[in-house]
Design goal:
The complex is a heterodimer of chains A (164) and B (566). Chain A contains 4 helices and 9 strands. Chain A has 164 residues and is of the alpha+beta class. The relative contact order of chain B is 0.11. Classes of the chains: A alpha+beta (164), B alpha/beta (566). The structure holds flavin-adenine dinucleotide, thiamine diphosphate and magnesium ion. The site of magnesium ion (MG) has 8 residues of chain B, from loops. Chain B: Pathway: Amino-acid biosynthesis; L-valine biosynthesis; L-valine from pyruvate: step 1/4; Amino-acid biosynthesis; L-isoleucine biosynthesis; L-isoleucine from 2-oxobutanoate: step 1/4.
Amino acid sequence: MRHVISILMENEAGALSRVAGLFSARGYNIESLTVAPTDDATLSRLTLVTRGSEEIVEQIVKQLNKLIDVVKVMDLAQYAHLEREMMFVKVGVEKNAACEAVKRLSDIFRGNIIDVSDKTYTIELTGDRSKLDAFVNALRDFRIIEVVRSGSMGIARGEASLHV
Amino acid sequence: MELTGAEIFVECLKEEGVDTIFGYPGGAVLFLYDELYKQHDKINHILVRHEQGAVHAAEGYAKATNRPGVALVTSGPGATNAVTGIADAYMDSVPMVVFTGQVPRHLIGNDAFQEVDIVGITRPCVKHNFLVTDVKDLATTIKKAFYIASTGRPGPVLVDIPKDITTARCEFHYPKEITMRSYNPTVKGNKRQVRRAIDLMLEAQKPVLYTGGGVVLSGAAHELTELTRELGFPITNTLMGLGGFPSMDKQFIGMLGMHGTYEANNAMHHADLVIAIGARFDDRVTGNIEKFCPYAKIIHVDIDPASISKNVKVDVPIVGDVKNVIVDMLEEFRSRNERPDAEALVAWWKQIDEWRKADCLKYNQDVNAAIKAQYVVEKFWEVTNGDAYVCSDVGQHQMWAAQYYRFSQPNRWINSGGLGTMGFGLPAAMGVQMAFPEETVGCITGDGSIQMCIQELATCLQYHLPIKILSLNNGYLGMVRQWQEFFYQKRYAMSYMEALPDFVKLAEAYGHVGMRIEKVSDVEGALKEALAMKDRLVFMDFITERENNVFPMVPAGAGQNEMILV
Ligand SMILES: Cc1cc2nc3c(=O)[nH]c(=O)nc-3n(C[C@H](O)[C@H](O)[C@H](O)COP(=O)(O)OP(=O)(O)OC[C@H]3O[C@@H](n4cnc5c(N)ncnc54)[C@H](O)[C@@H]3O)c2cc1C
Ligand SMILES: Cc1ncc(C[n+]2csc(CCOP(=O)(O)OP(=O)(O)O)c2C)c(N)n1
Ligand SMILES: [Mg+2]
């Protein structure tokens, strides 16, 4: 099963590599990982997406908690939660027809065209994973030059939260 | 007053009550050594002959005292030489702080002379590690290092100190207390879970206590003994748990696992309740996990939540320090009116006594035949009244030491279980002897293992460490040979030790006493003679039966009850 795991950790050199190292050393897989400091600059918030049976994910959460730099861990699969990912797609639009079609698709998906050149459009799109997948799929008839995805961020709905 | 980093380093050690450290100098730690030189009356520094020895010695010290061992090594090769010992301490949960020198800050990342990223290299085999980047952080970092190493599930912590930090100055202030928002081990067991555990104990028909290194690390041997006696249940120990319960007690059914006793492994297999305390269901214990304890409910007490339900799903998890939890268990048990089912226990003990009749540790020592390693260990146990500190290397001799030296106290059996590091024994014995200068410290070793840290014989001479080395010399990498005999049709690939040195001469060359013992009738006399030399290291090279095997044995893939007996 797919699990989105949220981690609060000390914003210190090496903390990230401890988390990443744990996954490679124990043979757990990382589907995506995203990290940045929080409103409290001493803390980083990391969202990690992994796959595994309940037992494996339980062990992953325990091992994460065991890392000294990790302050708190939350397996969002246990909660009603939101998940979003951001994507940039650069598409070739050499032909006029392509310009129109790409713009239309971007609008349908509520994307923003954030950069334009003679030959390219760069679109920004936020959504859950399946929406981003669908958008990339829809662009298949055009020339996709680059896709940059941030990896998922997650947050629990309502009262549940991960904070110190 | 402002102090240099080097002065702060020594002050911190004093604040932590460190009396002995093991180390080896080099460029990056020269200022630290200079300060240790000035304050040599405060801290005893033992100069080893290889950094691996320093770390194993610190482990030996820690395992015997339950206080953190301390090692100091230089950057680059000094640090990488320490890695094996650090990994060893990690696997066996040994409290230890290792200081490594690092190149000056401005050179870090430059492939500078003797630079390695030791923090990166050791990350997967330490409980935690630090690179000190500001002298102002040095004292707090050292405080944290000792705190982390010795609390919760103990383990090694590495502190990497760049050379320029050791000369930089700042105000010295040593924090008395430390709290870390990200590190708060649970030491008190959940009361409700303790009640549930007692409920199960009162219902059980075929209970068994399975206890491990956590009992020794927690200093809970006394409490465990009390609990076991009150319950009247059989008890087995892991390799790391030996001494946690007196081996000569009638409730003790021996070690369990790959080379455990017939009665211990069968009791586990047939049990309806397994009470695991400070033991981690290692694969050497469980054998084939699919076949492990098929009928049992399991209670598991461990300070590390990650140990619980890692390999085996448990019914009653209790996170906490063994000692606290046992005290709570005793209190809860005493408060109940019910007692364990006496009739069921009688039947269970009757069954266990049947298994005991297999007499699985029996061996025949013909006086005219080659010496059996088992015999040497048993005699050593007799002549030391079971009171010695026994360090061991890794191999067949280690198993025989575990089987035939009947430990009656905790912290006396010092070996490398999790990593199984050949070369551990002699330096570990140095650490123990440093901690307990007056006690008998034995090192049971093999002809292969002893050569992995043989250089430490020089250290033993320099510091007058009168260790008694029992080399159970079979001319083979015996444990490897045994596997090859059983599972590789006797193809003895590289398990034969050609060109063994003359250990007697070798010992003498290092300034010690050497003895070669070839006859059964000489074994006891040699041991007594060696023990009588109170102030000398004696290297006893026992020429033992070459193709002797460790029994019982649970072959790979088999269930615990599927043992090879002879
Ligand atoms: C050649 C060879 C053969 C071996 N054969 C066997 C064998 O036949 N049988 C055998 O048993 N082993 C054997 N071993 C050893 C084996 O590899 C493991 O090291 C050993 O079984 C682990 O012991 P343990 O479960 O007691 O755990 P340890 O490694 O001692 O771990 C201690 C456990 O207790 C917990 N703990 C620590 N402190 C506390 C505390 N204060 N409170 C609560 N919990 C705490 C820890 O979190 C951990 O889970 C062999 C090793 C070698 C090298
Ligand atoms: C550093 C290291 N290398 C290799 C091994 C694998 N190994 C385990 S036991 C053993 C043989 C040990 O031989 P010896 O010390 O003579 O002991 P014996 O088994 O003969 O009693 C070997 C090679 C190990 N445990 N450690
Ligand atoms: Mg040998």
